[in-house]
Design goal:
The protein is mostly beta strands. It has a domain of 132 residues: Neuraminidase (6 Propeller). Helix content is 0%, strand content 61%. It has no helices and 42 strands. The strands form 9 sheets. It has a 6-stranded mixed sheet, with no helix packed on it. Strands 11, 12, 13, 14 and 15 form a 5-stranded antiparallel sheet that branches. Strands 16, 17, 18, 19 and 20 form a 5-stranded antiparallel sheet that branches. Strand 9 and strand 10 form a beta hairpin. The radius of gyration is 20 Å and the shape is globular. The termini are far apart.
Length: 360
């Protein structure tokens, strides 16, 4: 089972903006009709975007444009931006691209995962009706179904969910959990000593965290962890129709909300943030403070100790803004934000080109 898409944060802005970019070894003029993704690497060095021009989709990373594709999505970076990956379709077939190397064609391809240090990548794929999981150059399979893997910081710990013999299992560095009715790939803290995943068994649904299971919901998303493993959080719903959503951070729950964005936790576990939808408007909660309303909002970013925080929000007919420690910057056509563990703040903005600057 593909991990449930609780949130579809699709940044879609119609831009009457002509931008020149390098494409297929020559200069091409592309109109950015729709911007699906606009991101910045965690260290603030590398920007990227997924956009549509006419009927075609393209990916742009550090000034280099890739495409055209029938569709493109899932752009991700390693922490330093040295490794980038995304998924695309061409001629009705699915591919994964890692640092310009194409893998495929496949009948189906899961989202590409990259270890934060860039040393490992992985994804699930289907060919001839059978599923496999690739981790770097190693293949696992065959399976009836499979999820893309996830990694700890340096890829020394990895894990994924797969279906075999009609049952779902979760494997982590050679240790297997199961049999389940449904399961999702696990997430890890930086060291890989802490893990968590969603699973369903005997008509009940659970979140497993370090061997302890939590229940009482209809659906949940595998938990995320602070880098040091001291805190974790996840999204869940009690409604059979998935109408009301909740956020849990450690032993505290928030909600119900119309929709939510999964929590982000500072590296030391001291500060958390998440977004929620209420009466069709988005709000951001950082610790005990709530900000909003907004028309769109993206997940927050924190310094290691949570003393610096920021997020991007959108106001209709105005544009995108970066909110950093009580101050808004903007509006922009598009903007992405990141805060390093040391507290350095970087934003990337789109206006006749992509510009990265540090906010002092």
């Amino acid at each position: 089972m593909r991990q449930p898409r609780i949130i579809s944060i699709i940044i879609a802005a119609v831009l009457s903006l002509l931008i020149s970019g390098t494409f297929s070894g020559k200069q091409s003029i592309l109109v950015y009709d729709t911007v699906k993704t606009f991101i910045l690497s965690a260290d603030g060095s590398t920007s990227g975007m997924v956009f549509k021009s006419g009927a075609d989709w393209y990916v742009k990373v550090s000034g280099q444009t890739y495409g055209p594709y029938e569709s493109a999505e899932g752009l991700v970076f390693s922490r330093d931006g040295g490794v980038f990956a995304y998924n695309y379709t061409l001629n009705g077939q699915s591919f994964a691209s890692i640092n310009e190397k194409a893998y495929g064609p496949y009948e189906e391809c899961g989202a590409v995962s990259i270890s934060p240090d860039g040393s490992y990548f992985g994804f699930s794929y289907a060919t001839n009706g059978k599923y496999f999981v690739r981790v770097n150059q190693k293949l696992y399979g065959t399976f009836q179904k499979a999820e893309s893997p996830n990694f700890n910081w340096d890829g020394s710990v990895s894990g994924f969910a797969y279906q075999s013999g009609g049952k779902w299992k979760v494997t982590m560095n050679g240790k297997t959990f199961g049999d389940f009715t449904v399961a999702a790939s696990p997430n890890f803290d930086q060291s890989g000593n802490h893990y968590g995943f969603f699973y369903s068994a005997k008509s009940s649904n659970y979140i497993a965290v370090d061997g302890q299971s939590f229940s009482g919901f209809q659906l949940a998303v595998s938990p995320v962890f602070s880098a040091d493993g001291s805190a974790y959080g996840y999204v869940y719903t009690k409604s059979p129709k998935w109408e009301n959503w909740y956020i849990r951070v450690n032993d505290k729950s928030f909600g119900p909300y119309e929709n939510v964005i999964p929590p982000v936790i500072s590296a030391d576990g001291s500060v958390y943030g998440f977004a929620y939808l209420k009466e069709q408007k988005w709000y951001m909660r950082i610790g005990d403070k709530a900000f909003g309303p907004f028309d769109e909002v993206t997940p927050p970013s924190f310094s290691k100790d949570g003393s610096k925080y920021g997020f991007v929000y959108f106001r209709a007919k105005k544009g995108y803004y970066a909110y950093i420690d009580g101050k808004s910057y903007g509006p922009y056509e598009q903007v992405a934000l990141t805060i390093t563990p040391e507290g350095r703040v970087f934003i990337a903005s789109l206006y006749s080109g992509i510009y990265i600057k540090e906010i002092k």
